[in-house]
Protein: 3-oxoacyl-[acyl-carrier protein] reductase
Amino acid sequence: MNQPLTNKLALVTGSSRGIGAAIAARLAADGASVIVNYAASPQRAAAVVDAIRKDGGAAEAVQADVSTAEGRKALIAASDQAFGGKFDGRLDILVNNAGTVEFGPFLEAKEGAYERHFDLNVRAVMELSHEAAKRMSKVGWGRIINIGSAFGEGVPLPGVAIYVGSKFAVNGFTRALSRELGALGITVNGVQPGPVNTEMSPEDGPHAPLMISRTSVGRFGRVHEIAHAVAFLAHPHAAFVNGENINVDGGWLA
Ligand code: NAP
Structure:
């Protein structure tokens, strides 16, 4: 079997379900040893790890709330210990996937909405990228892949202003950071999903018909379709792709 990511450590934030779980499974199938990070669902993370191992892959679950400085520190420390310490001091592939959204009119935004969106969707992405870049620059190879959103480039419906602000920030950060790290052997890219059927965005939810109408393929995306784009960016042959945000959005932004 062709496993281009053998002997690479991959960390996928927020991978106990949804898009993150599919990314973890796909990178493990491609040979990476994968840290399955989660904040609140140990059983789900364990199920993701079990499924990866059953398929012959390597994975370990790590609980850590990446929206906090302590959580990020604990996550990196646990990654160093994982897999018997085999990857101590390394981090080859970072997928910043964990994210949150609170739909609703801006004038009715709840107390703490800015912190909840920006601490997780933006600050965690920046701080974990910083730690990853330090490690990757030592070995001269790395992949930082940020899961933004089609809402990070276009705004087809109201009620998402704070989330959109956070995802535009991820889009800009991805492109700007690529300029600094490219010469060090580290690529920084993003994947911007359109509507994908997960608990965050169920295809039978109230906004679904409007979202589907904005795509040209006429449906919600599937988590493996996002994971496929991440696997492309993680592949050693993608070394010449840098500062790119790939829209996997069913034609939403065309
Ligand atoms: P989801 O179904 O809500 O899953 C979110 C994942 O993140 C879960 O595994 C959750 O695990 C974890 N998580 C939440 N808060 C965390 C924290 N503070 N620290 C660590 N892990 C945390 O979301 P999704 O739909 O798969 O979305 C994944 C990413 O894609 C997000 O960045 C989202 O903005 C983006 N996206 C999604 C869509 C879509 O249509 N689904 C579209 C565009 C972009 P626990 O519950 O265990 O904490």
